Amino acid sequence: MLNLRDLLQEMIEKKASDLHITAGVPPMLRVDGVMHATSHPVVTPEFSRQIAYSVLTDEQQK
Fold first, then answer.
1. What is the mean pLDDT of the chain?
2. 8: pLDDT strictly greater than 90
3. What is the pLDDT of residue 11?
4. Do the domain assignments include residue 18?
5. Is the pLDDT of residue 1 over 90?
6. Could you please report the per-residue DSSP string of 8-56?
7. What are 34's strand-pairing partners?
């Protein structure tokens, strides 16, 4: 299953400056100012929540 670490690794490999995770579209990378869709599946609301919660403390999640 795709996770934040995999997406960050892809950013490094492709020299992307930004990662956009939005439900309803595949993860997007900004490379040299241009947005590119990754080859990953469309992000679900649950996956976007999982990614957000993975970097938040329990208190921040409330």
1. 96
2. yes
3. 98
4. yes
5. no
6. HHHHHHHT-SEEE--TTS--EEEETTEEEE-SSPPPPHHHHHHHHHHTS
7. 31
Residue 58 covered by a domain? no
CATH of the domain at 21: 3.30.450.90
**Nearby residues of 10 by Cβ (< 8 Å), 6 or more positions away:** 16, 29, 38
3-state SS, 2-14, equals CCHHHHHHHHHHH
User: Domain for residue 62, yes or no?
Assistant: no
In which domain, by residue range, is 37 found?
4-52
Query: For 23-37, what is each residue's pLDDT tens digit?
Result: 999 999 999 999 999
> Does 34 fall in a domain?
yes
* Residue 41, pLDDT above cutoff 90: yes
Tokens of 25: 């579209």
What count of other Cβ atoms lies within 10 Å of the Cβ of residue 30?
15
